[in-house]
Amino acid sequence: MSAQDQIVIQNLNKVFASGKGQIQVRALDNVYLRIGAGQFYSVLGPSGCGKSTMLRIMGGLIEPTTGKVTIGNGETPHHAQRAKEFGFVFQDPGLLPWKTVAGNIEVPLTVNRKANKPLQHSTAELLELVGLSAFKDAYPYQLSGGMQQRVAIARALSFDPRILLMDEPFGALDEITRAAMRYELLRIWERSRKTVVFVTHSIPESIILSDVVAVMSARPGRVRGVVEIKLPRPRTEEIERTPEFLEYHEKLKRLLREDGNGGTDA
């Protein structure tokens, strides 16, 4: 691991057993990745390719069958998780309906009273970061889908984790809201500069957000290619109309089609 690596994945394999172990499903096959500190790193692939499984292994939520994941200076995912080094954002924001926006952001403090890592930002600072200061007393049912996800992002950042793991966080949103949320996330990331690992099946989304995109094959998930996105930052919607954007789009689409899969958003 180099001094600039935040996450290193080596020879990662995951096999799930089903029906008393009689049927085995290989989700990941010999995956190797290096994710740099402070990078916005996307994992792009079709549904069922194992990208969410890889993210959960990375975050210490499930165990690999074989292989190794190293976080920071040699930590295991479990050690990094206990040290509150991960913030998680999933497709479902998972907000508590009986709590306000501010109350939902403060949930990690409530459930981790004995944690050895205190909150690094006030609730007011987190609300300002995600643009929801005016909605601190609102309840989830009063928020749009995009606003609910911004609450989930603020909650994930409450302990100031080094790494933000995001599993299709915009997958349940309508396309108009999803397109806007990409740039909201960029705005938040520009201010925090966390290491982000972002799982998606959208080619445009991966280009807009990322420094690097790893392209996964259909199951069993293998890394078909790793593409560095050298578009200038900060990025705005105008970048989607540039020749460079279209070149990256074609390159990623080619990688995805090499094994005949087409299960991604164009």
Please tag this protein with its features.
266 residues, alpha/beta, Rossmann fold, 2 domains, six-stranded mixed β-sheet, 9 helices, 31% helix
Verbal overview:
The protein is of the alpha/beta class and 266 residues long. It has 2 domains: 5-85 and 161-257, 3-Layer(aba) Sandwich (Rossmann fold), CATH 3.40.50; 92-159, no CATH class. It contains 9 helices and 9 strands. A 6-stranded mixed sheet has the order 5-6-7-3-8-9, sandwiched between helices. A hairpin with a 6-residue loop joins strand 8 (212-216) and strand 9 (223-228). Helix 8 (203-209) crosses helix 9 (243-257). The relative contact order is 0.18.
Topology (elements, then pairings):
Layout: E1 5-18, E2 23-36, E3 40-44, H1 51-58, E4 66-71, H2 77-82, E5 86-89, H3 101-105, H4 107-111, H5 123-129, H6 145-156, E6 163-167, H7 175-192, E7 195-200, H8 203-209, E8 212-216, E9 223-228, H9 243-257
Parallel strand pairs: 3-7, 3-8, 5-6, 6-7
Antiparallel strand pairs: 1-2, 1-4, 8-9
